[in-house]
Amino acid sequence: MSQQALKEALSKTVQGIQQNPVMSKVVFEAQTALVENVRCTGQVRGFAPIVVDEPPELGGGDQGANPVELLLVSLGSCQEIMYAAMASMMGIKLDEVKVNLKGSLDLKGLFGMDPSVPPGYQKISYETILRSTAPEAELRKLIEAVESHCPVLDTLARPIEVTGKVTINGAAVVA
């Protein structure tokens, strides 16, 4: 899709929301299933299943990225998509967008060895690499727009409500 076609598609969506604000509310869904040992599959819409696995030192067969790596991929790819989308809307040509990410995790939290250590990431850092002939002032506006509107970055940076339930043999477990 060309930058112009991307701009037209996004503009059409924005206009649709302006005309019918209820259109702004969307729900995304995914299903996952444990396949064998710690290998899982994830299913989104009609796409081929995503294989999720752990490296051998965490009991896996290393047949796919693990969940915390996928979280980094989600953040980086969301940033890249937002750069493409916002740049098209702002008329900025981008020659390259790449994101390098690192997540720091202490396995003592994962294995319950230290109650003071959380099981998830303690820190995520990223570096976005942009290549463009656009003036720096325009690129700074683009950066600000992406950093303030990236859904995955926003989700990671602020507390959100996460709810869940467990069923055993078809019956809900009451906590």
Helix content: 25-40%
Q: Report the uncertain regions.
A: none
Q: Give the helix tally.
A: 5
Number of strands: 7
Question: Alpha-carbon distance between the termini?
Answer: 49 Å
Largest sheet: 3 strands, antiparallel
Query: Using only CA atoms, what is the Rg?
Result: 20 Å
CATH topology term of the largest domain: GMP Synthetase, Chain A, domain 3
Q: Would you list the SSEs in sequence order as H and E?
A: HEEEHEHEHHEE
What is the CATH top level name of the largest domain? Alpha Beta
Q: What is the spatial order of strands in the main beta sheet?
A: 1-2-3
Going by CATH, the homologous superfamily of the largest domain would be K homology (KH) domain
Write down the domain tally.
Answer: 2
Beta-strand content bin: 15-25%
Question: Could you describe the 3D structure shown?
Answer:
It contains five helices and seven strands, in the order αβββαβαβααββ. It is an alpha+beta fold. It is globular, with a radius of gyration of 20 Å. The protein folds into two domains: 39 residues; 94 residues, K homology (KH) domain (GMP Synthetase, Chain A, domain 3, 2-Layer Sandwich). The strands form three sheets. The protein has a three-stranded antiparallel sheet with strand order 1-2-3, with no helix packed on it. It has a two-stranded antiparallel sheet with strand order 4-5. Strands 6-7 form a two-stranded antiparallel sheet.
Short description:
The chain is of the alpha+beta class and about 180 residues long. It has helices spanning about 5-20, 65-90, 105-110, 135-150, 150-155, and strands at about 30-35, 40-45, 50, 95-105, 120-130, 165-170, 170.
